[in-house]
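Quarterly update from the structural biology core.
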Amino acid sequence: MELKVECYTDYDFCKATQTLNLLLIQKRPKSFDPQWIEHHDRYLYKYLSRHVKTETGEVDWDAVTTALERRFQKRWYWYRKRKAITSMPYENKEELDLVLASFESKLYTALVPQNEKDEKIQDKIFIRLVRASQKGNILAQKKVIEWLTIIVNEWIESSSSLVKWKGYPGDVIERIQGCIRCYRYTGTFIGYVYKTFQYSARGLRSTCSLNDRVGKGTKTRIDYIIQE
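Predicted structure, tokenized:
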């Protein structure tokens, strides 16, 4: 199957990502970035760079890569390729408000997503805020930390694989800050944070009693251990 578009004005987002998927299937690069796209299809690159934008006017490469086949998502090289530059911290409330305003009717999904569709919106909200944080916006970082602290603490209360974190409340924010700094593109941001806490919990010493209840139910930690 071949999808050919002669001019970038003939694209819509769905057609553009289909074109990029087909291009990646044909060329089979080990990795790719915006320059690779421009080199192989300048019309496609023009469409993406002019019409797929974030609230702050930057190209929304996160939206593009999310729409690709999973195998190609892993080959995206843009954020890994960029040299680590320590951005000067700044406070830009307008930038933060632009992100929040674009999801105004769906902000509840940040903390209480109701279904799979809400979870996708939740991830978009966090990724937008994380990108602003990575540029140095302190206010965006504070918002991510505020919301993630609530989410992570709920995980710690309800998940047996994260329960060890209950003895290290002072380290939770530090770990969240690390997730904000290190996230490039590895699938969902929320999933990335969960896996980070899950894996790092293995190296923590338990400081809680096995008889403590987990979550709001009646089961204790020993009950979950026995089940496993």
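The longest helix spans residues 138-158.
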